[in-house]
Amino acid sequence: MASTLTVSQLNRYLAMKLRSDLKLKGVAVKGELSDFVVNSRSGHAYFSLRDETAVIKGIMFASNVRRLSFEPAGGMKLLVIGDVNIYERDGILQLAATEMTPLGIGAIRQDLEQVKQRLAAQGVFDTASKKKIPTLPGKIAVVTSPTGAALQDILNILERRFPLVSVEIYPAQMQGDAAPDIIASALARADVSGADTLILARGGGSEEDLKPFDTETVALAIHRCQTPLISAVGHETDTTLADYAADLRAPTPSAAAELAVPHISELFGALDIMTQRLVTAFSAGIARRESRLSGLVSELRLASPELRLVKAQSRLESLTGSLTAAMKQRLDSSSMLLDKYASQLFALSPFNILERGYSITMKNGSAVSASDLSAGDEITVRFADGSAEAEVKKVITNDI
């Protein structure tokens, strides 16, 4: 008789059996995804995988969910790898998934994502390495199909906006299996052409048509370019690896041409503004310098030796006038005093007495009196109108 088991014992036994079966470990199951839900608290994902006749429950733990390179959605065809086990509490057979890979279109996108990750790891998409597009390019190299409408759009806009720029065309096949290598070769030649800016352009197309621009070959060729590059691949809604690798992405070839050059009328307007600013600044500078020069001239004039000389000359003339006046006054005063003394001297002069009939007796050139004479002395007697030589006969003195 078979032994009696509890539900827990049975589920535990089945779980042990499944865990010991190596064929149920790392099993790959393909099917359509449905009911995919991620628990917001635990981060675990719960789902169902079905085909035309059957369905199996599945779980993916949070650590594996975080490693997914795409966002699973209901209706996707997936290849799921995991272990088959039983959730013992509810007795539910389930697939504990460790990996999920989209099939069909999803697989292509998965491959593209892997290429994108490899390129990102090499720094192909780093923002810090992006080069600035020149404002005034003298030469632009365009890598595109020589027969496509994209080229004509670019040429027309460049001619209209900035006819001074020269343009060189580097023909390249834009689609097909050989396109990536051809595009990479054309980019390498354009990069050493001396152009200031490169434009890689294609006028849109289907997802299949744009495949060359989602290749590692083209993305790396763009990254290797030393010349700033604008990508213009597809339409506004299409973004390729080439766009991520480029220094600047334009939604269309026409937009790329507009981004590559300024409008010449804007340059003339800017030139007028700059000219006016220059004239204003120049005039203001001249005015400031003239004012400064006037100040320096005034300072120089005040400190000039000529001015000092003029002042000194004026002072000298003033002092000369004062000295002349003082001398004249002194001379006049001295002359008056001299006249006074002369009058007094004249009044006291013995010669003045001679005019009244008196005479002066002189001996040996000196005036003498009677007591100075002896008989026989030779004397000179001076009168007002002349003199006489005489000899003393006798000296008579007055007794006082």
Describe this structure as you would to a colleague:
The termini are far apart. The protein is of the alpha/beta class. It contains eleven helices and 14 strands.
Round the Cα radius of gyration to an integer and report it: 65 Å
Question: Helical percent range?
Answer: 40-55%
- What's the shape? rod-shaped
Q: What is the annotated CATH architecture of one domain?
A: 3-Layer(aba) Sandwich
Assign the structural class, choosing from mainly alpha, mainly beta, alpha/beta, alpha+beta, or little secondary structure: alpha/beta
* Overall residue-averaged pLDDT value: 87
CATH topology of one domain: Rossmann fold
> Largest sheet, if any?
5 strands, mixed, barrel
What letter string, H or E per element, gives the SSE order? HEEEHEEHEHEHEHEHEHHHHEEEE
- Number of helices in the DSSP assignment: 11
Across the major sheet, the strand order is: 1-2-3-5-4
CATH superfamily of one domain: Response regulator
